Amino acid sequence: MKNIIITGASRGIGYELAKQHLALGNRVLTISRNVEKLKELAAFAKEGQYDFLGIDLTDFNQIDAVLKAIDSWDQIDVLYNNAGLCINKSFEDITEEDLLRSWKINFMAPYRLIQLLMPKFKSCSHVVNVSTMGAVQGSVKFPGLSVYSSSKSATVNLTELLAEELKDHGPRINAVALGAVQTEMLDEAFPGYIAPTQPDEMAEYLVDFGLNGWKYFNGKIQQASISTP
Ligand SMILES: NC(=O)c1ccc[n+]([C@@H]2O[C@H](COP(=O)([O-])OP(=O)(O)OC[C@H]3O[C@@H](n4cnc5c(N)ncnc54)[C@H](OP(=O)(O)O)[C@@H]3O)[C@@H](O)[C@H]2O)c1
């Protein structure tokens, strides 16, 4: 049984990730603001296998609760920094509030969570930062995503940097740059767009990458996309 933390599990890819890890018999802690959706996931868990935390990851004081929630765990095997916010708005219309909310959830929350959880990471622990193709240097860019892609690419940079700084004792840390996946986030940002990948399909890849990718990769940006070059 592996110990897994998944942020942003109340819907979309994170919800499917939690379901699949529970089906494998892993112990899972999920984190989101919408507690009702997190409670639903208990239906897929056996006794003692599942816990959830209803917190706002843009608030550092609330993030502190994560360490307390896993007090009894010897170690974290996989942390998925999956929670995210995608604002599709023209550059001229982006407000200070848009910038702050995006950078807090897409960059500062993963930063603080890794920092906070350091006592629970071992050399074989794996941090998976869920990113986007738009954050990959040289990839096709989409107008309207200035705040989303820039905040996600800061986390890609952090991935490379921490892999070096933490290489002697772990955790291993990688990012996965996703192409379009059919979730509510995509539908809200790009109404009517049909993605070639479903959340359960992407979750399947992320489950495998989370459990095994640390053996082969550190500080790498894996592209998981069949929609954008
Ligand atoms: N879908 C795509 O096409 C696509 C493409 C590239 C990358 N990605 C990335 O993949 C990840 C998952 O995307 P998705 O499409 O599944 O998104 P989603 O359906 O919008 O889910 C986002 C999750 O993040 C949580 N979240 C957002 N703000 C939060 C906050 N302040 N505190 C705590 N939790 C928060 C949401 O839960 P609550 O609202 O309950 O808090 C929700 O569970 C994201 O990082 C996204 O950027 C997605």
Descriptors:
229 residues, alpha/beta, Rossmann fold, seven-stranded parallel β-sheet, 8 helices, 7 strands, 39% helix, 20% strand, globular, binds NADP nicotinamide-adenine-dinucleotide phosphate
Structure description:
- Belongs to the short-chain dehydrogenases/reductases (SDR) family.
- Keywords: Oxidoreductase.
- GO terms for molecular function: oxidoreductase activity.
- This is SDR family oxidoreductase.
- The chain is of the alpha/beta class and 229 residues long.
- The chain has a single domain, classed as NAD(P)-binding Rossmann-like Domain (Rossmann fold), CATH 3.40.50.720.
- The chain is 39% helix and 20% strand.
- The chain is built from eight helices and seven strands, in the order βαβαβααβαβαβααβ.
- Strands 3-2-1-4-5-6-7 form a seven-stranded parallel sheet, with helices on both faces.
- Helix 2 links the parallel strand 2 (27-32) and strand 3 (50-54).
- The longest helix is centred in the middle third of the chain and has 22 residues, at 96-117.
- The protein starts with a strand and ends in a 5-residue tail after the last strand.
- The relative contact order is 0.16.
- Bound molecules: NADP nicotinamide-adenine-dinucleotide phosphate (NAP).
- Residues 8-14, 32-34, 56-58, 82-86, 105, 130, 132, 178, 180-181, 183-186, 195 line the site of NADP nicotinamide-adenine-dinucleotide phosphate (NAP).
- NADP nicotinamide-adenine-dinucleotide phosphate (NAP) is lined by residues 8-14, 32-34, 56-58, 82-86, 105, 130, 132, 178, 180-181, 183-186, 195.
